[in-house]
Amino acid sequence: MNTISPSATSGPEFSITRILEVPRELVWRAWTEESELAQWLRPFGVSTDSVSFDVRVGGHYSYTMTNDETGEKFPTGGVFLEVEPIERLVFTWGEPDAPIESAPVITLTLIAQDPQRTELVFHLRGFEGKPGDGFVYDGWDEALVNFSRHLAGERLG
Asked: Tell me, what CATH number does 22's domain have?
């Protein structure tokens, strides 16, 4: 296992858990392949373009979300800190060029429930979120709804 350790290890945080009715390999692919990410990586009412993911320790990723109603753009990106294929992905999240030391960190843990079901644990350190906050928690919760719909084969608009 290769990793880069951010210096910040505490702070506000929250987790969202989903049980997905697909094998862990498909969940991993949908989180790590650009063509898959471009289809679901956004909250409701937002479009995503210019998706670039270099999934390796030290690799960078970026994407731009655009509010469909106002046209406001939100460049987003970070650095992959830990990559354990089909089990765990750790990366910074926020402004594309934010320093690793101060960036929020997302950890995805994929747990096989059986050959056809996967538990996804999404953990974000760096923001205090809760359901109904209309901000980071709700945005990621909506993105995970899109993620589940994408895995179920729904075509997202």
From this structure: 3.30.530.20
CA distance linking residue 107 with residue 87, whole number of Å: 11
Contact 79, 87 (CB under 8 A): no
pLDDT of residue 97: 85
What is the rounded CA–CA span in Å between residue 89 and residue 64? Answer: 21
Q: Which tokens in the block code for residue 99?
A: 């320093």
- Considering the domain boundaries, does residue 37 fall inside one? yes
Domains of the chain: total: 1
Distance CA 98, CA 84 (A): 23
Q: Are 93 and 82 in contact (CB under 8 A)?
A: no
Round to the nearest angstrom and report the end-to-end CA distance of the chain.
Answer: 37
d(C-alpha 61, C-alpha 117), whole Å: 27
Q: Residue 7's pLDDT band (boundaries 50, 70, 90)? A: very low
Domain annotation covers residue 102: yes
The Cα 61–Cα 144 span in angstroms is 18
At residue 10, what is the residue type? S
Region 43-47: mean pLDDT is: 93
Residue-level pLDDT at 155: 82
